[in-house]
Amino acid sequence: MKTKMAVFLLCGAALLTACAGAGGGKADSGVPEFVLTYAENQAEDYPTTQGAYKFAELVNQRTNGKIEIQVNAGGTLGDERSVIEQLQFGGVDFARVSLSPLAEFVPKLNVLQMPYLYTGPEHMWRVLEGKIGDDFMNSFGDSNLIPLSWYDAGARNFYNSVRPIETLEDIRGMNIRVQESELMVDTIKALGANPVPMAYGDVYSGLQTGKIDGAENNWPSYESTRHYEVAGYYTIDEHTRVPELQLVAQSTWDKLSPEYQNIIRECAQESAVYERKLWQEREKISEQKIREAGCVITELSAEEKARFQDAVSPMYELYCADYVDIIDQIVAAGK
Predict the structure, then answer these.
(1) Would you indicate the residue range of the signal peptide (predicted)?
(2) Which of 51, 90, 93, 321 is the one with CA 20 to 30 A from 283?
């Protein structure tokens, strides 16, 4: 009887301890108060994924282990659109997503990814790190999403399995995969090609089977997904520079103390600096690998690029009629 009583008391004490930790009060030493999820659709070695791991590491260190963020790479928690929806109802705590699907939820973000908007990376970062970028960070309203920091994703270019794209006529009639983004669908149509919305993970087989002729993405994505194996024509036109954002769910944010919120913001900014450095390094490595693989690399001439720009110019009125002043400010920042 004494033995049974001792076991009962011991189990009861353990249960009380576990409940105290789960109740959001002070956790025991070494036991996290919060175990949170982070969704990332890229591979483990990708710069954005490495940025996510750095973010999780910094937060864990600065909170003395009280916040543990578990990074789920490779799209295991769903594609970007699905992840954004999960963030909105608290099914996922953190994520890194592209502005293309995110703009479907916060339309003003379309401004930042308009085709041929930036003269180069320096221009884009002047915009994002200045007052314009801050204004966009504060424009999420009742989306149930909290932006934390900008991540780099380079410039997107066209690639295909049919022929080099040297002129506007070359892309016409091609079936081009696009993200789930109305802006990208309309951009491809404006260029005379056929947009094919398709999940990121299906692009390789789509190119291989001929369901699509091409797609568009940056150097590291083209290389890491091995799309260059089935679509060997890569055209440098830099039609969009689509920055990306680290986000936290509003429901998760509201559970955190102001102290934890400040730490998370600081760590997100530090991880962004780290990610941008990794991106620049990876971009060079990917380009070299693709060139060595024998892919046909074409760079649009200035005259031909101007034709592409003219073709998509109606997009500005369609998507940015209410933001003409912001567009003017962005263009001015590049001069």
Answers:
(1) 1-20
(2) 93
Exposed, middle or buried by CB within 10 Å (0-12, 13-18, 19+), for 103? Answer: buried
For residue 311, what are the contacts with CB-CB under 8 A and spacing of at least 6?
168, 190, 191, 192
Cα-Cα-Cα-Cα torsion 94, 320, 155, 295, nearest 10 degrees, comes to 120
**Structural domains of the chain sorted by starting position, each given as residue range(s) with its CATH number in brackets:** 15-152+243-283 (3.40.190.170), 156-241+285-333 (3.40.190.170)
Q: Could you give the CA distance from residue 126 to residue 50 in angstroms, rounded to a whole number? A: 24
At residue 29 the predicted structure's pLDDT band, cuts being 50, 70 and 90, is: low
Query: Per-residue pLDDT tens for 256-296?
Result: 999 999 999 999 999 999 999 999 999 999 999 999 999 99
Predicted local distance difference test score (pLDDT) of residue 179: 84
